[in-house]
Amino acid sequence: MIWPQPICRAVCTWLLLALFAAAAPALSQQSSDSSASPFSAQQPRPAVSAASDRQVSLRTFPTNFAADQKEIWLFPGHLAKAQHWLPAVAIAGVTSAFIASDPYSAPYFRTTNSFSGFNRAFSGVNTAAFIAAVPASIYAVGLIKRDSYAQSTTLLAAEAFADGFALDLAFKGVTGRQQPLQYTGNGPYSDSFFNGTHNPFHSGGFYSVHAMSAFAVAAVVAHRYRSHRWVPWVAYGMAGAISFARVTSSNHFPADVFFGGAMGFVIARYVVLPAR
């Protein structure tokens, strides 16, 4: 079924509402610079784990990024010491399963018009703007309210994106995977790796920057404002919708999207957020 224009407009409206919802926790949070008495039990601070999160500022951002990259690229050393095997095997196993199924799932999304309206609403430009607008709106609220916690949330999200983007450049440069868009009809789609451009700034490829960015931002916002129980649902729900759109629009294979989302979440949650 092709989505009619009213539904497309409704989806766009939903995106805008989700954007405003993303900034709502920062709006409802009392300023961390306030001289008022400590938060009472009736007015709990949304950011209950502020002390356990990493400290970040514009000045320390480059140093944090360099430390992150060192940890990311030395991660195979942890595996050699039999550490973190379970999550690594789980992500690698699911990604491998998707890669094996990509040639069979891609033709459907390449040939159907069922998602045309959804794809227009969740286009690459629209979703990239939305992903950027969420932390930007939180930062703006932080500036207005002089709330250092909200500002730090944005900087942590930016740090997670920068880390994931740097890793993505390496993956795309090495794997040179073609987009489903570069195939016609039913393919075949089995020769996508190493046959596309090795330009890491090219669209598509392994892995999806949109999926990585969406889940990186979602992980930071969901963690920092998790005392608002609806925030993780909205954050990860939007990240999932954005990621799915990369498949329905044939910009990426499912494996690219899954692995990108996994990298965004893991980097944000276990590299960027923990205190050092």
Structure write-up:
The chain has 276 residues and is mainly α. It has a domain at 84-276. The chain is built from 10 helices and no strands. The chain has helices spanning 5-28, 61-73, 75-80, 85-111, 116-121, 124-145, 148-175, 209-224, 230-248, 254-272. Helix 6 (124-145) runs antiparallel to helix 7 (148-175) and helix 9 runs antiparallel to helix 10. It starts with a helix and ends with a helix. 37% of the residues are buried. The model is unreliable at 10-20 and 30-48 (pLDDT under 50).
Counting H and I runs of at least 4 residues, what is the number of helices?
A: 10
Distance between the termini: 51 Å
Report the biggest beta sheet as strand number plus sense, adding barrel if it closes.
none
Going by helix content, strand content and strand pairing, the class is mainly alpha
The percentage helix is: 55-70%
Series of H and E elements: HHHHHHHHHH
Runs in which pLDDT lies below 50 for 5 or more consecutive residues are 10-20, 30-48
Secondary-structure blueprint of this entry?
Layout: H1 5-28, H2 61-73, H3 75-80, H4 85-111, H5 116-121, H6 124-145, H7 148-175, H8 209-224, H9 230-248, H10 254-272
Helix pairs in contact: 1-6, 1-9, 2-7, 4-10, 6-7, 6-8, 7-8, 7-10, 8-9, 8-10, 9-10
